[in-house]
Please model this.
Amino acid sequence: MNDKKRLKGGEFLTIDQSWNDIFTMEDFSEEQKMMLQTAKEFIDREVWPKKAQIEEKDYQLVEELMKQMGELGFLGISVPEEYNGLGMGFVTTVLVCDYLSGATGSLSTAYGAHTGIGTIPILLYGNEEQKKKYLPKLATGEWFSSYALTEPEAGSDANSGKTKAVLSDDGKYYSITGNKMWITNAGFADLFIVFARIEDDKNITAFIIEKEKAGEGFTLGEEEHKLGIVASSTRQVFMNEVKVPVENMLGERNGGFKIAMNALNVGRIKLAAACLEAQRRILDGSLNYADERKQFGVSINTFGAIKEKLANMAVQAFASESGVYRASKDIENAIEDNIKAGMPKNEAELKGVEEFAIECSILKVWVSDASQLAADSGIQIMGGMGYSKEMPMEAAWRDARISRIYEGTNEINSLHSIGMLVKRAFQGRIDLMSPAMNVANELMSIPSFDTPDYSVPFSQEKEILSNLKKSFFMVAGAALQKFGADLEKHQQLILRAAHILIEIYMAESAVLRAEKMLNHKAADAEFAGKLAMIQLYSSVEKIKHEATTGIISFAEGDELQMMMSGLRRFTRYNEYPNIVQLRTEIADYLINKNKYPF
Model:
């Protein structure tokens, strides 16, 4: 067991964690810092100068860059050494994904699809023969992989796919027929992980198809013309009685849905990571432009309206990093604990990621939204120039948009986070009833009017975070009591609860990181504290809105008045921070450095 107290997935809601129990970017090892620098140098040298060429839909260039990534070992970060990979831990795989993904969404998508959903299913579910046969080729870039799940009538409802797999009379192969769409890397992939249904099975089954051996029945549509990620190969895959040897079934029959969902859990946190460096580059580009652009005889970075946007972009980048690396280390610790408990490595990784599936969904939603907002602010700061295809901001905005759709839409992930939380409560894996009852009792009590002592840094912020959790239990508990099993029919109400849950995790991650930096006397600790204070304030305001909307949708009379009174109590500041002044100080700090410092 890890020496520090390790919370299980979702327990951040019921237990207030210490700053000393979380991992942040400031904790990177020397090896991790080296990997970060190597990834960043590759992007700055080989990719960023070619961004305009990529935006002209140069699919061949993206494939060539992927091959270079393979030669540098980037495609095999998480693949064990015995299969020609580097065998690095979960945090390092997330870190590399982060810094390889910020220059262009086209390459980021190709990389993420290959190393994530294109490789992980074989790594975690493949038998030893399949691993030895395919992983070395995928880890080195000799082969590229594609993941074929989505169908014309099966998107978010992945298990409803119509693709069929029929066993031959001699039992030697399956004949697969069906149509897959929006398949990333399809144009240059050598290997396809395809999901199909055998007979009338309840669940789909996964298969490995080698393109060279698939025959004439395996064909591709034309490249899709997309809003963003324009040089990421995206095609339809058509299969007409494609013969697949029985030994190419991946995992168990009926087990494809489980493979798909677990691959998506990993994909969700990796997608969040892939939005981090994009935010940093957008902010740095905005800082440079705002310094150089003159209006009314001065740089536009002297204007308060511009400073507000720069500050908000930095706040969201800081919170995004804080949440992603906090959860990544939690997953890595869970994997290590599972291995120590005697689990095989592949099972340990599956269980470790699954344990934090709630956090993976939270991060996917919040960070992809933050990335889109950053790009939108970047365009606004640049004005007409930001709208021009000659500037990288326009492409950044288009590329960011897909992040809210793939790996499960943000709406699906929001609903999923609450669904998983409730399911775990019913399973006894997390105690939600005790805190919900405590909050209900507190609502009936007389609040304290004592003047609190906030002499210790972040004491007020941490008290507010504890109260925000009470807000969640008040709203979610009352809704669950009122609707019971029918709660799932009230999606708008569930979304309110999900948005509260998401804001709590992200604000807490930012505050704990800033507190840790202060205690370690880290560089830029004071700046980090200001970022965290604004993030918390923003989260409080959003939670007020979401909780109010939720409460008035199902409560009335005395219950409504009591819950609204409770919400005011749980979202109250005793000492309000001067948000305008903080934003100005943050912007001035960024302008002075002319870059995001983390």
